[in-house]
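Practice record 12: protein with 1,5-anhydro-D-arabino-hex-1-enitol.
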Amino acid sequence: MASAAAIKRVDSIADTMPDALRQSRYHMKRCFAKYIEQGRRIMKLHQLMSEMETVIDDKAERTQVLGGVLGYILCSTQEAVVVPPHVVFSIRLNPGYWEFVKVSSEDLSVEAITVRDFLKYKEALYDEKWSNDENVLEVDFRAIDFSTPHLTLSSSIGNGIEYVTKFTTSKLAGKLENAQPLVDYLLSLNHQGEQLILNETLNTASKLQAALIVTEVYLSTLPKDTPFQNFELRFKEWGFEKGWGDTAERTKETMKILSEVLQAPDPLNMDRFFSRLPIIFNVVIFSPHGYFGQADVLGLPDTGGQVVYILDQVKAMEEELTLRIKQQGLTVKPQILVVTRLIPEARGTKCNQELEPINGTKYSNILRDATAKILDLMEGKPDLIIGNYTDGNLVASLMANKLGITQATIAHALEKTKYEDSDINWKELDPKYHFSCQFLADTISMNATDFVIASTYQEIAGSKDRPGQYESHTAFTLPGLCRVVSGINVFDPKFNIAAPGPDKSVYFPYSDKQKRLASFYPAIEELLFSKEDNSEHLGFLVDRKKPIIFSMARLDIVKNITGLVEWYGKNKRLRNLVNLVVVGGFFDPSKSKDREEIAEIKKMHTLIEKYQLRGQIRWIAAQTDRNRNGELYRCIADTRGAFVQPALYEAFGLTVIEAMNCGLPTFATNQGGPAEIIVDGVSGFHIDPNNGDEASNKIADFFENSKTDAAYWDRFSKAGLQRIYECYTWKIYADKVLNMGSTYTFWRQLNKEQKQAKQRYIQMFFNLQYKNLVKNVPVPSDEPEQPAAPK
Ligand code: UDP
Ligand code: LCN
């Protein structure tokens, strides 16, 4: 394959493709003739390639054709629309960079076309009349994005806060007066009406600069640990209020950082200064999806990793907020409210309680009600609103706009990329999944929000070969409804990566012998090895000396637990080496109300019979006790086993980091977040869920190597742990997210006009289009469920 170097960044595809086609003119003419043979259709890359293979059947010739620029362009193609005599390509050379060209199969001429034209060709295959209508609704968020600076390098995507700090710095640079917006912002800081940091005495940059110099000298005369209260009154007279620090030393440091910023703004000091400012005290987190509770909910419909993520996130943020507020010298108590649905029929959970304190926190609660109650409980407005998943993000956007508060969104998983052609096919899928509402709600909230928290780079901008989840909202079309020519720009500096971590008190290494929860051993022994089937487990393990390969997930199609069972069933070598234990769903399909789950339960039974797996497999029903689950991972590690996450697509994959933090060598899908969590062959292994033979042989190789070399297993166990310590901890997360909260609160202030313009556009779209669309979604009842769009 040709390298990227063959195409210079300045050249467009329309510039380079004609020459490339000319060089293989004979083969290309035949290839394009083949492509148009079947008439109008959409072709994906694998179809383009396999039809090319039938035309150029000589491998050496094919390699030669694909070896040049042409190969590079073709392999970067995401899809092609065949409209004889033309083939229209959408090409993505780099994450975030798309080009569209129209190639004539007759003379191989190439014409650059716009994204709008590309979408029109595509949608015309589904609804030609609508597509040709000049007056269809076009959504174009780029048109109102007139002043926010954007990134240009694919490699910078996801580092938004770093660039926002740089952009802010340059806005404030130059003359001292340019720093006035910062002074105004500092003057606006308060907690429930009590002024913080500055008062009106210091209302200009020059007054502030002079006062800081004098005050720093004064602070140098005090013992370092002098409490702020000792000089509070004198400070007030000079124009300084509380919030700089708890001691003379910390106050002096913070002042020094601000002096540096005023002298010559630089991103490093700017970032340090904002991380110290008292901006965030009260946070509201929206999570209306599924059953939000602290016990007995995991495994209920729509209730998976998000709930785990949010509860762990609250603990980490409360801890970090408490520390920061103390260091700011304030006595305020932080408050975090998780707002969710109150479910009267709560299935034995606490989801019918209006207010429930969050375990492991002092000041955080779950609230199952809305705005007025929030203002009441917090005794004022929150400082930051965080949305979760489509519904939570939309509600958060509405409330943040209403109250004028900084907003963050967390997708966990966007659904659009999980189902091929889900946009263009929306009419067919809507009765089941309501994707039209979901994709537009996602697009609204990702535009409305001040910053986006993503777990991985791939979530935003994908990888070299696969577009990111957010990136798939750049342009799409819902024929008959609207054409989104610019949905989101992944180069917007609002995108940030802050990955979650495992709860270390629950998922700790198997080798931490003193911490192990021995009280669970009898139950786990029963769960894994007892001989009789019951309502909690099915199947048994004859040879208990073998290591165990383990997987645990909701029993959704996309989780592919049945795929793993089939790979195992087919691979004799693997079956000889290890036993298989899977946790997921339950055994009686008539008890499920979820179509996908029912199908998967039936498939599990069929596979166990088909491959005669009894004696080598243990299927355990969904588990809700996190502490026992932690011990279960560790007991699997005791067998010197491994964790396997075989999903067809996984947005992030909490089980992957939980297993790794228990010291369990981990094999995880290369489709989605796990591809980034694990460095293949170093901290674990990637497996291709679409190539079961290769995946099961990779796992078998690992166990063969571990058999001949005992250190081999240990190496991967330790490297997995190391990876989590370095990159996936809630401490790193909370620190990053609170810094974002502070920085983007100032940023939205600096870009007020732009923000307002966008908000007006969003409101119009929401009121005229979205509200009508939502009316078509039936109110859920307790009837058999539509399969929830997976979480
Ligand atoms: N989980 C669980 N019991 C189960 C299945 C899953 O406790 O039977 C937990 C698992 O430990 C993890 C979360 O649910 O914390 C699943 O999160 P993940 O990100 O892997 O997938 P999601 O369900 O969010 O798609
Ligand atoms: C939703 C998913 O699908 C998972 O991949 C994530 O790990 C989980 O949410 C937490 O963000």
